[in-house]
Automatic annotation (TrEMBL):
<dbReference type="GO" id="GO:0006783">
    <property type="term" value="P:heme biosynthetic process"/>
</dbReference>
<dbReference type="InterPro" id="IPR022417">
    <property type="entry name" value="Porphobilin_deaminase_N"/>
</dbReference>
<dbReference type="InterPro" id="IPR036803">
    <property type="entry name" value="Porphobilinogen_deaminase_C_sf"/>
</dbReference>
<comment type="similarity">
    <text>Belongs to the HMBS family.</text>
</comment>
<dbReference type="InterPro" id="IPR000860">
    <property type="entry name" value="HemC"/>
</dbReference>
<dbReference type="Pfam" id="PF01379">
    <property type="entry name" value="Porphobil_deam"/>
</dbReference>
<keyword id="KW-0808">Transferase</keyword>
<keyword id="KW-0627">Porphyrin biosynthesis</keyword>
<comment type="function">
    <text>Tetrapolymerization of the monopyrrole PBG into the hydroxymethylbilane pre-uroporphyrinogen in several discrete steps.</text>
</comment>
<dbReference type="InterPro" id="IPR022419">
    <property type="entry name" value="Porphobilin_deaminase_cofac_BS"/>
</dbReference>
<feature type="domain" description="Porphobilinogen deaminase N-terminal">
    <location>
        <begin position="5"/>
        <end position="209"/>
    </location>
</feature>
<dbReference type="GO" id="GO:0005737">
    <property type="term" value="C:cytoplasm"/>
</dbReference>
<protein>
    <recommendedName>
        <fullName>Hydroxymethylbilane synthase</fullName>
        <ecNumber>2.5.1.61</ecNumber>
    </recommendedName>
</protein>
<dbReference type="GO" id="GO:0004418">
    <property type="term" value="F:hydroxymethylbilane synthase activity"/>
</dbReference>
<comment type="pathway">
    <text>Porphyrin-containing compound metabolism; protoporphyrin-IX biosynthesis; coproporphyrinogen-III from 5-aminolevulinate: step 2/4.</text>
</comment>
Length: 297
């Protein structure tokens, strides 16, 4: 019987919200379990350059995974998109809860009123530090200026409203989880392709502890989210990339019959884009290989 669980997470408002969500979920399964949330500062939290300029991958998870290996925590809660495709052999993603909306959104300054993309003026200034978002913005809006921006959600929104830029590109999932009410335009994820596993959480633990948490894992895990994000991460592994390349992939299960798949990659200034459907029963490796093959054929 599990009496106490220590959950490791980053200290940002979003990360803590996500960890509390998982803690509440665990207590729905068993209200007698005492849960402690331990904040761990990661290399990514201290980074002064854009992620794609950093030589290392997994900068937002490294120290948390070390805490798991050292048995300082029992479970870790990550934004799955922060996790490298290459896993630490002693660790495992135990559970993947239901995915939030994976879409990106365009958030305007408060004094700007827009209802659709046609309302965005040609001299508008966008802000993002994501190579994927920069690539897609340049593909859709070649006449727009794009500034680099860093900081947590609140910091970026404050910079936006202070006039640093006219529009931010952000993950809709982050706004939803934090309960932030803003005017925004949701971008179609099959056109403006999200990052791998965007909107999904990963609950990670020590591989040898899997059986200990088996019942909780079954309660937390969402099959459709797990299988779709697993395929996306397999494609990322085949490409060998992370934040260092402009790449996006979204696999959407449709009524347990098929996957609707959208992916893109920019290489040597050229964008390769694919949009197709695959049989839901097809092997995950085969689906990932097909996405990779179509991107590079």
């Amino acid at each position: 019987m599990i009496e106490r669980i220590v959950i490791g997470t980053r200290g940002s408002k979003l990360a803590l919200t996500q960890a509390r969500y998982v803690a509440e979920f665990i207590n729905k399964f068993d209200s007698t379990i005492k849960i402690e949330i331990k904040i761990i500062k990661t290399t990514g939290d201290k980074l002064m350059v854009a992620l794609h300029e950093a030589p290392e991958r997994g900068l937002f998870v490294k120290e948390i995974e070390e805490a798991l290996l050292n048995k300082d925590i029992d479970l870790a809660v990550h934004s799955m998109k922060d996790m490298p495709a290459e896993a630490v052999s002693e660790l495992e993603i135990f559970a993947v809860p239901v995915r939030e909306d994976p879409s990106d959104v365009i958030v305007p300054r408060k004094e700007l009123s827009i209802e659709n993309l046609d309302d965005i003026s040609p001299n508008s200034v966008f802000a993002t530090s994501s190579l994927r978002r920069i690539s897609l913005l340049n593909n859709f809006f070649t006449f727009k200026e794009i500034k680099d921006i860093r900081g947590n959600i609140d910091t970026r929104l404050k910079k936006l409203d202070e006039g640093f830029c006219d529009y931010l590109i952000m993950a809709k999932a982050a706004l939803n989880r934090l309960g932030i009410k803003r005017n925004y335009i949701t971008l179609d994820p099959f056109t403006f392709v999200p990052a791998v596993a965007q909107g999904a959480l990963a609950i990670q633990g020590r591989r040898k502890d899997f059986n200990r948490f088996a019942k909780i894992i079954k309660f937390l895990d969402d099959f459709n989210t797990r299988i779709s994000t697993d395929i996306e991460r397999r494609v990322l592994k085949l490409i060998g990339g992370g934040c260092q390349i402009p790449f996006g992939c979204y696999v959407c299960p449709i009524k347990n019959k098929s996957f609707k798949i959208s992916a893109f990659i920019e290489k040597d200034g050229n964008i390769r884009r694919v949009l197709f459907e695959e049989d839901f029963k097809k092997d995950k490796n085969e689906v990932a290989n097909e996405i990779y093959k179509r991107l590079f054929s």
